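TODO from last week: model assimilatory sulfite reductase (ferredoxin).
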Amino acid sequence: MANTPSSSKLLVVGNGMAGARTVEEILNRGGGERFEITMIGDEPYGNYNRIMLSHVLSGEAAVDDEDLILNPMGWYTANGVKLHAGDRAVALDRFAKTVTCESGRVVDYDVLIIATGSNTFFPNMDGLREHDGRLARGVFGFRNIADTNGMLQMAQARDDVSAVVIGGGLLGLEAAYGLRTQGLTVDVVHSPGHLMNQQLDERGGSVLRAEIEKLGVGVHTSMRTTAVLRDEAGLVTGVSFVDGSTLDADMVVVTAGIRPNTELARAAGLVVERGVVVDDQMRCEDEGSVYAVGECAQHRGETYGLVAPVWEQSVILAEVLTGSNPEAAYVGSRTTTKLKVAGVDVAAMGVKGPETADDEFVQYYEPRSGTYKSLVVRDGKLIGATLMGDISKAGFLTQAFDGKVPLPEERISMLFDVGAPSAATSVADLPDDLQVCNCNGVSKGDLVACVHSGAKTLTDVCAQTRAGKGCGSCKGLVADIVACAAGGELEADPSADWYVPCIPMTKPELIATIRERDLRAVSQVFAELAADAKEDASAKMPLASLLRTIWGPDWVDERGALFINDRVHANIQRDGTFSVVPQMKGGVTTPEQLRKIADVADKYGVPLVKVTGGQRIDLLGIKKEDLPKVWGDLDMPSGFAYGKSMRTVKTCVGTDFCRYGLGDSTSLGIALEERFQGLETPAKLKLAVAGCPRNCSEALCKDFGVVAVGDGRWEIYVGGAAGAHIRKGDLLATVESPEAVVELGGRFIQYYRENAKWLERTYDFVPRVGLEHLQALLVRDEEDIVRGLDERIQTAVDGYRDPWKERSAPKSPAQFAPSLPLLPLPQVPVR
């Protein structure tokens, strides 16, 4: 193509990630001067990142999010590209060199690129479609913005929607995670015996299943769906299986795989097998001016459903067409996948397990922590590896898989840091061609070059290279590489301190503005402060939390801004039921309270009654419609075990009975819980009081912990953790009385409420702010803020309302409407 005339007409059929990326690569090589470029896209907008659709579904991103939109409509005009958006190519005449669109438009070409991508595969099931071939109402694929918007609209229409996702691969689990985040009851049905069977072996699949079930998603494997069940009005009511069993549902999402979209090519007489057959220059077989790229293309017998091979193909095709490298050849891709599946990090490459008797197979799994690791070595070469949960070794394994580093004799060191360099210390040693972001095909060299060309912040680098804007699993490594490349000269990114991405203000600035303008509803905040007054789904929950922190009961309660737990004041469980945890201040109860709890458990058939780690009793398995009645019969205050709030104060028996007690920890714990009960906080807040340094109540590893040390003195620790993260709290101060503990506790909690990021636990907040700075502000009052903190925490305390007082007057008709069907939970045997 080196002699292609400058007036040549280049037509690209498909405006998805492959088509648009190929055009970008062509333009980067001077193709704008060689070609008059036209694109046809059947969706009515510019190119967007399909990987981000799962983030849109879960509420972590909006449809107009800049991370989703890769090429807005203005990009095409600015680059001299004519885009026919919202028009489908329906016929190709290879001899006349024209493409006819659904609108009747006819576009001629000199060079044609087919980038039609792939379609959702819908298995042959009764009830899936209407008589005219359209999907039945309530049935969705998960392939485009229209699918995603349809699911969101149905999910938000009422509180009790349930969904079945058919297909337990990557896409299915992402759909399930997104819908679960929206508050739906979700079940995943998968024909094979374990989840993500294309990437994981059976052991890895079982570990992943446990992690998915922890999210409250029901999992059904080895189950083949035969029909979508519908009522007389045509609405979905559930699905049925080959064994005759059924599962109720209001929504069915089909993610049973994808198929290359080859209809246009096949009808035109091009060679099509699984995909459009192409050679090493992406040229269609027996054609001189027709090419194919992306998921629709079949190269050397392989089709690829991952973006990394698509980027490689785009570069090769651009080099061939522009003449920048006429001999460029695509020889196939060694697929290395690093992604985040429903919040779980996964990396996979090569084979899943041993295939010959001589293959070396190293495997480690820890279901409790959701960790699974394996590798396969043949003839001294790594031919496969899988990581789940902890993927810190993914960079090293990728190099080994590509044959760029020798394998250590101790194979286990490839999975754990036992002599081999850790990921954190080996960033400088990573090769420049190591692909860091699989979603957008960004290498270490791309990141380094971006920094050296003048990018000032991590945000600038990510915006220019698109690194980290897909599944997000590479963000940590991207940050390490960028920091290394900048040599310490990288500037701070102002947007990193914004409370929500759509409003350019820090949290204190946002609080001040909300107070000044008297904004009391999330919709008001969007209307007055967000860019172009647009709502951002990912900002709703943090803004609702902030408004409740500022205004207490006087905020305007908009149900759509709340998570299901906050709408019904209970913690949703995996089967769609809820848990009820009444308050037991300081872990102290009475025979009367215990009788009430026992009577309620009997009356409502509660399947599990459990003592919690916070010294309370949890009633699990309560139906949503029964929640108001249960709380009415209990007539006890809420324990706030469901929200981002002050949860509980754990205590030991202190001086009343313990031989070692140095202080009355029980009374102090009750005083703290009465003072701060139900306070809205950026993330859950757990407290504890220990009557002596033996620390029986685990106060040293709580968000706010208090330890009696004798002579009436108490040590106060902040920022501790003993969950997914382990951290001993920092000693904030030693005070002389229980009253001083309550006073300083209020100041710390209010400062945390006003300054922590959304979902930032104290074990991250305290190190970020700095212990010495907290002591200067809260203990020594060096900036004269203590009086204001005391006043505002008092206002918050005075505004406390038990949320279950509203049980007789629901906020909405659907608030406590039935949420059946429910999955049967395994009964816990009495021991």
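Done. The longest helix spans residues 738-755.
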